Amino acid sequence: MTDFTGKKVVITGGTTGIGFATAQRFINDGAKVLITGQDKARVADAAEKLGPNAMGTVARTEVPEDAIHLAEVVAAQFSHVDVLFVNAGVTWPAPLGSIDTDHIHNQLAINVAGPVFTVQAIAPLMGDGGSIIMTTSCLDVLAQPGMAIYSASKAAVRSLVRTFQAELGGQGIRVNAIAPGPINTPIYSKLEMSEDDLNAMAQDVVSKVPAGRFGEAEEISGAVTFLASSDASYIRGEEIAIDGGWSTL
């Protein structure tokens, strides 16, 4: 267990899945955590489940004004930030022939503009020893039919990690990424696919993963807390794949 006693952590997309599991892990390790989400009731419910060392606020960080407001809330609650986990993201699969402007604009707004505005707003509250972790995806290096725009958006985030590290490194802030593979999270229930199509997609994905299964959110959270800790002090601008070997083997 890593000791995060007294540390202040901000997690976007923290109401379910990887974000929620990571918030729980930080809290178990002694941190105070502020989570964000888009739905007020879900944010409140998640914060209550996480306990007294958690708080939540509604934010759509692809909207610059929301990102600025988030920074104001964080400054009022925490005064400074030790760890920022930029995790909020969406996916809307579509084959090439079905891609429209909504597929492009919505995914690029949430998955690319959101992280930019989040880091832009929160980084001034961080200092020497601060750590930013961003969620990419193994699909930023893999080809999966129907995932062109999502994959492109996550490849963009991978590029942001490198550039943000170059810009923020002089302030003592480390910037890294985790690249999850297929993980059992509620994101799959939001794909507007039939149960049969979801099952077929899941079977196709698992057939390609050397581990032979979907991962669990708790298997991602440990990598995030590692990158946030002093144990990772010499890791900068890196992306760690946590995908059951899919992108490697």
Automatic annotation (TrEMBL):
TM region positions: none
Domain of life where this protein originates: Bacteria
Segments forming domain Ketoreductase: 7-181
Coiled coil spans: none
Listed Pfam families: adh_short_C2
Record-linked PANTHER family: DEHYDROGENASE/REDUCTASE (SDR FAMILY) MEMBER 4 (PTHR43943), DEHYDROGENASE_REDUCTASE 4 (PTHR43943:SF2)
Sequence similarity: Belongs to the short-chain dehydrogenases/reductases (SDR) family.
Protein name, per record: Short-chain dehydrogenase/reductase-family protein
Record organism: Octadecabacter antarcticus 307
